[in-house]
Amino acid sequence: MKYTKVTIDMTQIHYASEPYVVDSSLPLRHALNLLRKNGGIPLAVVNQNLQLVGSISNVDILDRIGSTERDLIDILEFPIGLYANTTPYCASILDKPETIAGLLQNGLCRSVPVVDSERIVKRIITGGKSNITIKGVEIGEDFEPFMIAEIGVNHNGSIDEAAELIYHSKEACFNAVKFQHRSQYTYDCSNFHTYDIGTQYLITQINETSLDLDQLRLLVELAKSLELAVIITPFDEVALEDIKALNPDALKVASCDLRSTRLITRCIETNLPLILSTGMSYEREILEASQLLQASFTPHCFLHCNSTYPTPLEDINLSYIDRLAKLTGVPAGLSCHLPYSELVIASVAAGASILECHITKDQKAAGTDHSSSFEVSQLKNLVKSCRTVSRAIGTCVPRTPSQGELANRLSLGKSLSYSKALKKGHCLTVQDFSGTSPASGISLDQESLYVGKIISCDVNAFEHVSPKHFDNSKITDEIKLAADFPILRQSGYKIGIPVRFHDFNNLVNAFHLDFVEFHMSSHDLDLDVIKYVDSKWSKHLELVVHAIEQFPDGFIFDLTSCEQDKIDRCHYEISRLVSCVNLLKPQFKPGRTTVVVNLGGFSKSSFMSDEQAFLRTEIAAKKLADMSMMYPDYEFMPQTMPPYPWHQGGRSYHNVLTKGSSIEKFLDMSNTRICLDISHTALSCAEYQEDLHQLIRTISTRIGHVHISDAAYPGGEGLEIGHGKLDFRKIHQALVPSIGSKGIRIVPEIWQGHLDGGHKFMTSLQRYETFVLEGS
Questions:
Q1: Band of the pLDDT at 481, cuts 50, 70, 90?
Q2: Bond into 714 cis (ω within 30)
Q3: Per residue in 700-753, pLDDT tens?
Q4: Of the candidates 265, 343, 757, 745, the residue with the CA atom closest to the CA atom of residue 546
Q5: Through-space distance between the first and last CA atoms of the chain, rounded to whole angstroms
Q6: Are 151 and 177 in contact (CB under 8 A)?
């Protein structure tokens, strides 16, 4: 169900719907799913009449599960009502917001159902930042700015021009379009001749550019068919009644009506989110409107605005956006009446969460709004620039390294090492230590733990300190894991983990595996690989290899290249890889070897056009087919990619096997199966606003191998399962057709998962097993 929320004094108010309210008759597994979606906020449990009968939390469920000997699968099918706490905290709809907030701020509970006199749940109040949601898009300081294309009267009274402006808004990637609607009663024209010249001109312009309700209905339907949110400004109560039948996604209260309490009250009664402009207002009037909206628990936000067309630069005052947000406790933004893109972009830096820009086909056209509007040719760059700045601003939270920095931190950082060669039996002092790269060993800040220890073997100068150098150390390099996954195997999954030659024997000893996936570096191809593989572990395992993407001389594998010398280099590197793997194959279970390969198709400064990306995809499909014919004992599986890969310490742009259309085009051009990297594809789906689960279902019959890890947009890839934003219950359900009767291989592709004896591999597989159980 869709829901909308608003913050009052750092509390959020949600409509009485999922994922905060649940029907008591539904099975317990449904409650678990909702608790995961809303971050563990206790659910209000209601009957079929939406009357409150209790609440349920993760703790309630765990307590009941722990007190019964029934099978977990049976328990998950029991009605939620059996597990509900029947005496939850709740509040009356008549209570003041400050009273309800006090229940949360004093730690009495994490969510408060607000009920009427018949105990029907009207709202759910929780803690959190001030966000609202319009047509499924969350708006607030942690999100990209919500961008509204104000069509207003710039259609000049022509439905065709209005439709054209809607198409331009969609093409430029606005979130919403906004219309205006006035009834015949907005202006009293009985004494028109007595009005000042400016008012007479304005009324004349409005009459000449008005659209009737049937025309407006057609435009609303067009916008919705293009998946744009529709926002309408009613200028009077009769106009509001007209547009309610059009089912807009939100209402806008114009600056001139911020003091129109009757109209605002009628807007509140629609149960739609409200956007209010603050032009022509004193701050006291803004605060009065804010208090009215807060008292009615209405989702809303305010727009800073100067109601002159166009606005003089000295009157814009972008600094007020931040003050407006702090005064009202809800998201604030800008309604812009000046066609300078740099001002709109600067408003994002000033804290605007929502932007309204007037648009026109011609700034020089006659009329009140055209000169203060952006021409359609400017719109794409305007939206792109605002979102670029928003990404760069980020959020004001304690600093942690980004995903790209973590890779560089490993390569460029330092590990604790010995400053000189030392003999067995030496007692270590501070002078015996140094620091050498890479940071793959013990961190420098752990030096004090090793001062005074006696080494149990000879060590070399600048060798990394290792727990293996000490007989009596409690620090161990290897965690033995009893890692078996019966539910995953029963569900048709084959279990593997990523390995390197140096850690193969230790990791395979710790897990019960069906296969391993060797991640190769260029240097690995020069090793005597047989001595790293103990056949007592390997002979029962299938062999999968991940081909090398980046090479020491700066070359990046790119089978999509239009340059023959790069294609020749790709073939040469594959031949080297195959020669190495041919030595490994006899140590493993007989069969065709899968090679996971990154096709390439990246660019350095920006994304390619769809036409360029299509050409690169076509080249890759042909070259991969050639490669498959050269090496019939190998199945080359191209891996799906993220929008922003990390190459040689910096970020690039990927164009092939990212968005759904690219993946589907590749599959249409080839008979190759692919390796679905869940994390990569989730980030691409977030970038292109696509449905990850639907995409998986669409390509399911062509998935031959799965890299599974969590993700958080825009750059968090390869995260432990449960540490990101993905719904793995739905991912499992989408993968079911891929499993078929032969099963499917999954690999926990977790950043630094090999450390501590593969601890992160194990925990991620265990968590995924739980989601598989819930989704079955």
A1: very low
A2: yes
A3: 999 999 999 999 877 788 899 988 889 999 999 999 988 887 899 999 999 888
A4: 745
A5: 22
A6: yes
Strand partners, 511: 483
Amino acid 206: pLDDT = 61
Residues with Cβ within 8 Å of residue 224, at least 6 apart in sequence: 230
Closest alpha carbon to 202 in 158, 164, 152, 162: 152
Q: 317: closest CA among 288, 294, 337?
A: 337
CA pair distance 33, 40, nearest whole angstrom = 10
- The Cα 376–Cα 555 span in angstroms is 42
> Is 88 within 8 Å of 52 (Cβ atoms)?
yes
Tell me what the mean pLDDT of segment 49-63 comes to: 87
Rounded Cα–Cα distance for residues 131 and 325 (Å): 11
- DSSP secondary structure code for residue 369 in this structure: S
DSSP one-letter code for 709 = -
Beta strands, E only, 266-340: 274-277, 300-305, 332-336
Residue 70 has pLDDT above 50, yes or no: yes
Where are the strands (E) in 368-527, listed by range?
374-375, 415-418, 433-436, 493-499, 515-519
Listed in sequence order, the DSSP H helices in 394-485 are 403-412
- The β-bridge relationship of strands 132-134 and 137-139 is antiparallel
User: Is this structure's pTM higher than 0.70?
Assistant: no
Kindly provide the b/e burial profile for residues 677-706, where b requires at least 16 CB atoms within 10 angstroms of the residue's own CB: bbbbbbbbbbbeebebbebbbebbebbbbb
